[in-house]
Amino acid sequence: MINSVIVAAVVAALIGGILFASSGSDTTDSADSTTTTAATATTAPGESTVPTTAAPEVEGTSACPAADGSSERKTTFDGVPKMCIDAAKSYTAEVETNMGSFKLQLDAAKAPKTVNNFVFLARYHYYDGLTFHRIIKDFMIQGGDPEGTGTGGPGYQFADELPQSGEYQKYSVAMANAGANTNGSQFFVITGDQGVALPPSYSLFGKAIDGTDVIDKIGVVPTNSDDKPNADVVMKKVTITEA
Fold first, then answer.
1. Which 8-state DSSP code applies to residue 156?
2. Which residue in 188, 193, 189 sits closest to 166, CA to CA?
3. Sheet of 91-97: strands edge to edge?
């Protein structure tokens, strides 16, 4: 019983590691409050304040990139993506880093909006050159922030596609957020039991199927007191394959 209490306390203290602050275009007081609160949670694990959430856009407006990856790089958008994928097809993402490569199997059937978003950003080369800015051993590796601070995003937010309790596994990939329906570009890969024990509050959209040794290696790099790697772990390129 004591061990269960300790594990629960550790997980609660680490949940702040997968919160982020949206850098959307809103300039209202509530948006400013969200940014401030979530940034605190990102830099101080254990922050329990839930940020004010933004209403997700209902219909996508941003044009789809070329499926062959030939589109020029874009890092900001004026709205959520249009539906660019076929949920009946299979999508994988190869993430090439400066520490090796790993491959994600994306689950378009269970999380079509989330997979569509990841594919959309990858085909626009959004992730190329970004870092895994937050790493916590036995918990997760988090990346996809153009600011590299945990406060950045693509300029829009979209709605959750949440799993059932107990569905997270080691090497699952899910979206970081600043509260309900605030998904953007930041994502994380679970690397240990503390991540598996997370509550189902983060959109689950796939799992690593190859290169898990690389994920393990990234998951134990030395970090500072804010869980930021001492040396950058860079996503050099993310390549989508559709079948």
1. -
2. 193
3. 134-136, 140-143, 187-190, 172-175, 204-210, 100-106, 91-97, 235-242
Which residue's entry shows tokens 């509260």? Answer: 179
Residues 141-158: tens digit of each pLDDT: 999 999 999 999 999 999
Closest CA to 189 of 18, 7, 15, 10: 18
This prediction has a pTM of 0.82
Amino acid found at 57? E
What the chain holds in terms of domains, given with CATH numbers, is 2-242 (2.40.100.10)
Model confidence over 96-137: pLDDT tens digits? 999 999 999 999 999 999 999 999 999 999 999 999 999 999
Do β-strands 204-210 and 134-136 pair in parallel, antiparallel, or remain unpaired? unpaired
Q: CB-hemisphere CA count at 13 Å for 95?
A: 34
Cβ atoms of residues 161 and 111 within 8 Å: yes
CA distance linking residue 23 with residue 223, whole number of Å = 25
Distance CA 125, CA 129 (A): 9
